[in-house]
Amino acid sequence: MKPEQAKAEIEKLTEKINHHNDLYYQQNRTEISDLEFDKLLEKLIALEEEFPQFKDSHSPTQRVGGTVTKEFATVYHKYPMLSLGNTYSQEELEDFDGRIAKALDGEPYEYFCELKFDGVSISLTYENGMLTRGVTRGDGVRGDDVTANVMTVRNIPLKAKGKNVPPTFEVRGEVFMPKHVFQQLNKEREDIGEEKYANARNTTSGTLKMQNSAEVARRKLDCFAYYLLGDETGLKTHEESIHKLESWRFNVSPTYKKCKNIQEVLDYIQHWENKRQELPLETDGVVIKVNSLEQQRQLGFTAKSPRWAIAYKYKAQSISTRLNGITYQVGRTGAVTPVAELEPVFLAGTTVKRASLHNANEIARLDLRIGDYVFVEKGGEIIPKVTGVELEKRPKGSSPVVYIDKCPECGTKLVRVEGEAAFYCPNLDGCPPQIRGRIEHFIQRKAMDIDSLGEKTIEQLYVLGLVKSPADLYDLKKEDLLRLEGFKEKSAQNLLAGIDKSREVPFESVLFAIGIRYVGKTVAEKLARYFKTIEKVAAATKEELLAAPEIGEKIAQTVFDFFRNPPSQREIARLQAAGLHFESTAKEPEKESDVLGNKSFVISGVFEKYEREELQDIILKNGGRVLSSVSGKLDYLLAGDNMGPSKREKAEKLGVTIISEQDFEKLMKG
């Protein structure tokens, strides 16, 4: 393709993708499937890589991330991001209203009410209509520049569209993780044996400070805009500013309302107390603002907060009900999770029958007894949790709950790894929920992506003895599938076709699919690209595994143990025989020079300017070699921060030259 053709195609694709983004994120409708959208985006990414001179800094490809930020610059806010005064009572709201009336000396006023979302405040600066900076609230005076990460939030406009857009303006918003995304993220963490995140707000905060914006993009954050600031907006009320943001295609929650007086404010608060549970994100209150911007200026600020606004906080919804029993669930990794079985009770818009107890430590901390009346709370949690015991109602003669010591599914004695809260069933190859869970993990979209195969079908295949491990899927025949309830000729053919197609899945996804504990999608990609083949991963020592990018002690140990387990070895051999990919097709970087003269390097630790993979590419491109372990033949140990002490000790003992990031840059200059 000629450059002029590429330029025209990039512009056409950009316009098309922006159109579909706008439909989906601002108008809640679609014209094409997710697959069609992804193909458009992939085409644009490929063209921008081939013709980088035509890549725009606000291209929709920025939504997928890829920028690595080692340090977040500190930025002073042009307009301080002050906190609001809080109240939990109607009386204090009425006192607030009295202060407003007195300060305005009889002048008429009205309020504007918005739900207070439980996310992370963000400041977005636009210049000439383009997003130029995204900054966290920080201490209110200064925050962190997280622009690269903010650009991955798909409903934050990269360009403000509409009439009368001023040259410079600032938008305040709340970045949040939707409930369904948070649930899926926790499901994935549970699936690889990691502890689940506590709540969506803290997870959002941590996500915004991730160094790799591609990982931020995968978290699918959202944002509601709620405030417009600028010297040339020409607005008179907060309501006008909200409508202006809507006209410029910002995502504004439609839950706001203008209120004529404090009674309408109280009605609004009552209306949303339970209805807010239907929203896609967590809310913890209502923000009440004087609507007139001129009156806001008259009322002014205290040292910490505006006098013209206040936040009404909903009390955490908690209720007491009887603990009828405790059941224990076994996950794919063997982790045993206790669940409180409750007398059904209505809480925060739903009937609650079960609640999380997290682990044995939590049961001991609460000193739980069967028959106790326990307090159940939703708060910022998606799943209800038990928070306390109503001791005055405790039955006499009750005994503390004794945590089970055998697997509730297969009877195997449970084990507990030092430093971990959970108990595990070690019977990996004989415990039914672990077996079914591994198969469910294997076929999921991010792993082998096998169509037409769900939990119910897996359950039937397991019960009939047709599938006891992922490798068994590749031995299935049409007559086997026709034994399943609901399966006819066509559905059997579709499933077999889906299984056959999974043989095309790349090694990175296969390594994730086989279900090594703690090895999520990203870790599997790092291992596959570092070691290149399953044989090298399997043969790696613990020290060699630790040399791979982002592999710590816990992951290295579980990978090492997995490949020394005979049933795992047999399973891998069967999957290889079935024709799955066990070699990475990631290309080696093209050579640029011989400045490193075939010198060998081991890279360890965290670096200020580079990711370890970047350093590896630089070394290979410039005639060097990258080794996985320290030996007497090694030329350089490239040492970053937080490097394992054993590597340094071994290098010093063997007389290997230890160099810093700065030393490496000098080497590169020749």
From TrEMBL:
Family: Belongs to the NAD-dependent DNA ligase family. LigA subfamily.
Pfam families for the chain: BRCT (PF00533), DNA_ligase_aden (PF01653), DNA_ligase_ZBD (PF03119), HHH_2 (PF12826), HHH_5 (PF14520), OB_DNA_ligase (PF03120)
CDD domains given in the database record: BRCT_DNA_ligase_like, LIGANc
Entry-linked HAMAP family: DNA_ligase_A
Species of the source: Chryseolinea serpens
Gene that encodes it: ligA
Name this polypeptide is given: DNA ligase
Active-site residues per Swiss-Prot or TrEMBL entry: 116
NCBIfam families on file: dnlj, PRK07956.1
Lineage: Bacteria, Pseudomonadati, Bacteroidota, Cytophagia, Cytophagales
